[in-house]
Amino acid sequence: MTDTAPFDDLSTLLSAISGGDGGSITPPIVQSSLFAFDSFQDFADRMAGRSDTAIYTRVQNPTVAAFEQMMARAEGGEAAVGFASGMAAISSTLLAVLRPGDRVACVENVYPDAYRFMERMLRPFGITTTYHSVAAFEDDPDLLQGVTVAYLESPSSLMMQPMNLPKVAAHARRHGALSIIDNSWATPVHQRPLSLGVDIVIHSASKYISGHSDTVAGVVISSAAHIARLRDLTLPLLGGKLAPFEAWLLVRGLRTLPARMRQHQETADLFVSRLAQMPEVTRIHSPGANMVPGLTGRSGLLSVEFDESIDIPRLCDTVKLFHLGVSWGGFESLILPALVGLDQAGEHNPMRVFGVSPHLVRLSLGLESATDLWSDFHAAVMAAKS
Ligand SMILES: *Cc1c(COP(=O)(O)O)cnc(C)c1O
Asked: Best of 83, 85, 87, 107 to mutate for ligand 1, by most ligand atoms within 8 A of CB?
């Protein structure tokens, strides 16, 4: 942990990354599937591992490498590897480190498709997952006994429960369990899990890293050894690679990440203070700075629970500045009612399993005027009151 203001710290870091040739201040988009060699000897040297230039874009690409380098530096890791989506990053990481018979201990209210991956993909391969509360992870020192992977989110999805990461990472280390965290909510602006003792950090870069709701991508940051394993095994063999153009969009997004996160926080602070004064609001799920060790700020993704006087469908149909939809982290503000998730088709519904309230709505507060957003939301709540 550093004493530097997190926003400025990260801005300096990201601005230090250079662009392309001829004074270009952004990296070129290298839209090429393969990279040709000048001679037999160059080709042979590369294949034998005596050089490390790009051969084929499924495995290595200069634009993707520029993004990976920025993410490694932002999270304070030795290396990073990009993936086609957050789910490709999650599945490729877990499949690289787990074997039949292994056990995963996962935090409750984990991202729904991560939950389905554990249940629908890992379980049939003989890898079992058990789900535990934040309190159990923190306070039961023997929870991780015999566990191969502690799969964490802090804060968790939808319920935004933050976790004492230094404590949980220390438990994992003592039991020889690998700790993996999805850091999409906090971003390296607000939390750097590697510096808190966590082994592997994963992002859905589709959210704040991209910041513009125009890309689906993922990235994993860790030690050189862990990343080398992903590069050797699941990146080439499952093939969920990040595309050069998407990587370029992410490099562009990263440059404004600290500024965007500052604005998201300002708006979220306003919402939290105003929501706390509304008698119709029963719970606010929005962790902020210092609520747990190493968390330095609040993101724009928060959840609110209302009492029974608020008609949630009417609220959703009345807001004007909030779009109804999944995902989050872009310019436009979004509203997601728990009701539609609770009614989602298909087996393994984590929202029902974890008991999410039908009176909950998740808000992704975007970059529009904070006061306009609040006026719009407040008016809609009042219009939805019976
Ligand atoms: C969206 C999301 C994911 C999945 O990422 P994709 O890029 O959509 O595959 C994983 N974790 C969290 C917390 C998310 O919000």
From this structure: 87
**The token pair that represents 380 in the structure block:** 């809609």
State pLDDT tens for residues 111-125.
Answer: 999 999 999 999 999
CB 59 within 8 A of CB 65: no
**Per-residue pLDDT tens digits for 141-190:** 999 999 999 999 999 999 999 999 999 999 999 999 999 999 999 999 99
Q: Is the pLDDT of residue 2 over 60?
A: no
Q: Does the pTM exceed 0.90?
A: yes
**Contact present, 189 and 257 (Cβ < 8 Å):** yes
CA gap 171, 94 in Å, rounded: 20
Task: Report the mean per-residue pLDDT for the chain.
Answer: 95
- Measured in whole angstroms, the distance separating CA 372 from the mean position of its chain's CA atoms is 28
Q: Which residues line ligand 1 (CB under 6 A)?
A: 85-87, 111, 153, 157, 182, 184, 204, 206-207, 216, 218, 327
Separation of 40 CA from ligand 1 center, angstroms? 43
Instruction: Sheet containing 281-285: give its strands across.
Output: 281-285, 301-306, 360-364, 334-337, 323-324
- 198 C-alpha to center of ligand 1: Å? 19
Task: Detail the DSSP E strand segments found in 101-148.
Answer: 103-107, 128-132
Residue 343: phi and psi, rounded to 5, are: -95, 5
Mean pLDDT for 364-377 is: 98
- For 108, the token pair is 């409750």
The residues pairing with 163 across neighbouring beta strands, listed in sequence order, are none
Beta-bridged to residue 299, according to DSSP, are none
Q: Residue whose CA is closest, atom 8 of ligand 1?
A: 86
- Copy the structure tokens of residue 116: 């389905």
